[in-house]
């Protein structure tokens, strides 16, 4: 920090890989590590359902808290994807940036359908789960079409989508109605019947996420070398405060932006849980205000902690996010099938642990083993720039 406020700085913190911005990698790595916790819940604690939004009257407080924390993952990651796209565009032509976004989008969507969906694991009713990786791919395609617009127009489009999409909540189409397929992809979480007995589930309706990636792209210039770190920090602090104040005002008004919260008589904890129970599928305005507002604060904190070893470790995870994503989901699935083969179904029709504490034990125990292969791949990717396909992972 010991620089004059007006003097430009090359980056916010030392990157794990030369040419990258360390604070972005660290924030991306943080949300990847948090994501592991949610996927462990889905592996060992799936027999305890978590509604969307969380039901404050019945949910276990520990599960509700963990759900709130991991809610940071998708919004921050999608916003940073937009930032990364802008930074890519500063070193490439518009045509090259569009081509890169389209190619990477197709890679992500193929991975979701061919590898990550439950079809890969051979379930009885083959299902294509169109989840966050599919969603990011679609967002990249839309972003590729929009990035030629002036930055103020992009900012306006992003704000209108994020703030206004909840006005569309009453629209609900049936499978036999026109535009059902398009609407199920855009804003209505639903099931789409496909040929050959397949079904697709639109877990992540894409419309609000398009707004998030566009806003991330519009914020990209804040990371240019000529922007001083302190200036960037002030901007993100102001952005965070604005978003969190807007969240509190709208949530207290209890009118627009998400399902209403309620008071649980005689139970302050569950009343608080209700206040913080926000809709993720698709993400409501209030969900995005809270998670992205916290994300902006985290970015500032990571920039100010640039010399801490934990920030460097997080930047390793963030430097190879797709590798980490594929690696940890594969390991978790193999662990689950191994446990089910040995012990059978222990919680109804699935294998699971009886106490959420065991999920936390697994979480702590897996972070270090997952770090080392991710660090190796991050170094390999940086050293082999001659291998073109590596940039898509």
Word description of this protein:
With 393 residues, the protein is an all-alpha fold. It has one domain. The chain has helices at 22-44, 61-70, 73-89, 94-116, 132-146, 151-164, 180-186, 207-219, 229-253, 268-275, 285-304, 309-319, 321-343, 356-383, and strands spanning 127-129, 191-193, 199-201. The protein starts with 21 loop residues before the first helix and ends in a 10-residue tail after the last helix. Residues 1-19 have low confidence and may be disordered.
- H and E string: HHHHEHHHEEHHHHHHH
Adjacency order of strands in the biggest sheet: 1-3-2
Task: Please tell me the overall pLDDT.
Answer: 90
Distance between the termini: 33 Å
Number of strands: 3
Radius of gyration based on Cα positions: 21 Å
Task: Give structural attributes.
393 residues, mainly alpha, three-stranded mixed beta sheet, 14 helices, 3 strands
Secondary structure blueprint with pairings:
Elements: H1 22-44, H2 61-70, H3 73-89, H4 94-116, E1 127-129, H5 132-146, H6 151-164, H7 180-186, E2 191-193, E3 199-201, H8 207-219, H9 229-253, H10 268-275, H11 285-304, H12 309-319, H13 321-343, H14 356-383
Parallel strand pairs: 1-3
Antiparallel strand pairs: 2-3
Quick structural summary:
By secondary structure, this protein is an all-alpha fold.
């Amino acid at each position: 920090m010991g620089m004059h406020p007006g003097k430009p700085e090359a980056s916010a913190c030392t990157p794990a890989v030369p040419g990258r911005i360390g604070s972005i990698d660290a924030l991306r790595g943080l949300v990847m590590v948090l994501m592991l916790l949610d996927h462990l819940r889905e592996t060992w604690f799936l027999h305890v359902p978590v509604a969307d939004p969380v039901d404050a009257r019945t949910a276990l407080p520990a599960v509700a808290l963990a759900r709130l924390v991991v809610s940071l993952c998708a919004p921050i990651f999608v916003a940073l994807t937009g930032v990364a796209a802008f930074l890519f565009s500063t070193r490439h032509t518009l045509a090259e940036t569009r081509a890169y976004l389209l190619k990477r989008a197709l890679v992500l969507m193929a991975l979701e359908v061919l590898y990550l969906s439950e079809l890969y694991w051979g379930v009885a009713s083959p299902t294509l789960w169109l989840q966050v990786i599919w969603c990011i791919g679609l967002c990249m395609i839309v972003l590729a079409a929009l990035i030629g617009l002036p930055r103020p127009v992009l900012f306006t489009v992003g704000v209108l989508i994020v703030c206004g999409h909840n006005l569309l909540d009453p629209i609900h189409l049936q499978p036999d109605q026109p535009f059902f397929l398009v609407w199920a992809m855009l804003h209505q979480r639903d099931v789409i019947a496909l040929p050959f007995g397949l079904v697709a589930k639109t877990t992540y309706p894409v419309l609000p996420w398009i707004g998030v990636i566009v806003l991330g792209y519009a914020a990209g210039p804040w990371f240019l070398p000529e922007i001083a770190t302190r200036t960037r920090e002030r901007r993100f602090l102001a952005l965070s405060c604005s978003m969190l104040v807007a969240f509190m005002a709208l949530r207290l008004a209890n009118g627009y932006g998400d399902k209403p919260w309620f008071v649980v008589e005689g139970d302050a904890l569950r009343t608080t849980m209700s206040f913080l129970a926000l809709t993720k599928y698709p993400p409501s305005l209030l969900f995005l205000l809270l998670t992205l507002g916290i994300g902006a604060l985290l970015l500032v904190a990571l920039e100010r902690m640039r010399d801490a070893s934990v920030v460097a470790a997080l930047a390793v995870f963030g430097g190879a996010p797709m590798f980490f994503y594929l690696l940890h989901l594969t390991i978790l699935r193999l662990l689950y099938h191994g446990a089910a083969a040995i012990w059978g179904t222990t919680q109804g029709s699935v294998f699971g642990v009886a106490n959420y504490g065991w999920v936390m034990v697994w979480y702590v125990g897996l972070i270090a083993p997952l770090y080392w292969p991710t660090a190796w791949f991050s170094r390999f990717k940086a050293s082999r720039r001659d291998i073109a396909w590596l940039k898509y992972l």
